[in-house]
Write a structure and sequence with these properties.
Layout (H helix, E strand, L loop, with lengths): L3 E6 L5 H12 L11 H4 L1 E2 L3 H8 L8 H6 L1 H10 L5 E5 L5 E2 L2 E2 L6 E8 L2 H12 L3 H9 L4 E3 L6 E3 L3 H9 L6 E5 H6 L1 H12 L5 H10 L2 H11 L20 H4 L2 H17 L7
Parallel strand pairs: 1-3, 1-6, 2-3, 6-9
Antiparallel strand pairs: 4-5, 7-8
Length: about 280
């Protein structure tokens, strides 16, 4: 049974926003869905519980290689954790690492893949990491870049930004719909409607409008101000920073723009991010 619909992206590309849109629409909310409950609506592929169940061991006792070996079994357990198709968040690239597959295609029904101009990604990514923009640029070029969850050795293999995007867009195993952050921001009704149609979900214009309001950047940011956000890293001042497109024009230095475009220009061009340097 193929139950998982992935919400996949490189970090800071709109993954949380998309999950909020889906939660508010699918659950037909009469009030905004709490951002701190998004983890129950859309499980994460690195949730320690499933690695524990897959191994029979406390996740703290698993090595990083153990967690790689257990990924497919863990995702199978995630797929069985709900009796219907459900959304699962991932920042993993597609493919394999050290011979271990990263995404279990046999339990995957499809994917929503979100992409954002890397010139904007790097600014939010640096803030998210508590790092300099130059360091974030370097990480986004690293084909071996990975992260480890705070409470376990569960790895997320991202690779560089270009590798991440290409891995999902060229995969032949899982159907996917591509969503550009900039298009979603410019016309959320149109873009989210396309996603709902692809998923086979009926479109209710009143519910759609309400979901847009309940998932707006101002609403998500206000919730974070009032209640905090569990997914915010401890060193980051805010998770929801600005949510705007094109901020790179006034923030990045020319040398930084050149470096990003030199590294990622081919994939940027495929996606319509045509930046002259």
């Amino acid at each position: 049974m193929r139950n998982i619909i992935w919400v996949a992206s490189f970090p800071k590309s709109g993954n949380t926003w998309m999950r909020a849109l889906l939660a508010n629409y699918i659950l037909k909310r009469e009030d905004p869905f709490p951002i701190n409950d998004l983890g129950s609506f859309s499980l994460s592929d690195i949730r320690p519980r499933f690695f524990h169940e897959a191994s029979g061991k406390p996740v703290e006792k698993l090595s990083q290689n153990d967690t790689l070996e257990l990924r497919l079994k863990s995702q199978q357990l995630i797929s069985l954790s709900k009796p219907h198709d459900h959304f699962v968040k991932t920042h993993s690239r597609f493919g394999s690492f050290k011979g271990y597959p990263l995404i279990n295609s046999t339990v995957s029904k499809g994917a929503i893949y979100l992409v954002r101009n890397p010139l904007d990604v790097v600014i939010s990514f640096a803030s998210h990491l508590g790092a300099s923009i130059d360091d974030a640029i370097d990480l986004m070029e690293d084909p071996l870049y990975s992260t480890k969850s705070n409470d376990s050795n569960v790895l997320t293999i991202l690779g560089g930004w270009s590798e991440h995007v290409d891995s999902w867009l060229t995969n032949k195993s899982i159907p996917r719909i591509l969503v550009r952050y900039e298009d979603l921001a410019a016309n959320p009704n149109k873009e989210f409607s396309k996603i709902l149609k692809t998923l086979g979900i009926n479109i209710d214009q009143n519910l759609l409008k309400k979901s847009m309001e309940f998932s707006s950047f101002s609403e998500l940011s206000e919730q974070e101000s009032k209640s905090g956000f569990r997914e915010r890293p401890p060193h980051a001042e805010r998770f929801f920073r600005k949510g705007t497109s094109g901020q790179w024009n006034s923030i990045l230095e020319d040398r930084q723009i050149r470096k990003i475009v030199t590294s990622h220009g081919l994939v940027m061009k495929k996606l319509g991010y045509n930046i002259a340097i």
